[in-house]
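Treating backbone geometry as a discrete language has practical consequences that deserve illustration. No coordinates are needed to read the tokens, only the vocabulary itself. For completeness, the protein is quoted in full, as a sequence line and a line of structure tokens:
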Amino acid sequence: MAAGGRDQDATAMNHDTTSTTREDGLLSTHSVYGAPCWVSLTSRDLKATEEFYSAVLGWQWRPARLGDPFRIALADEVPVAGIAAVAAMWQMAVAWTPYFAVRSADEAASRAQERGGTAAVGP
């Protein structure tokens, strides 16, 4: 542990390890602005996806309050990712989507667009 009771690895990564449990049951931590704060995966086969990431990363799974087609991945009992089922008939890419913590979604989207980026779904 580092000074102040913080884990050295967390301190070295500049993460605020203060956490609370939200009403929806997810663990909420204070994010580092400009860094990824969550990842979601779309999948056509939730069971196969769960089995794969359980074997590769040791993740455990629990249902989410968003319904059956969405599951929460846990690493050491901490929520780290979500997976959502995508019906085969949907023309949607099966891919990882990272989410970044920013102070203002509007400002970040504006800066991205000024530099040639696009917003598929605006803030």
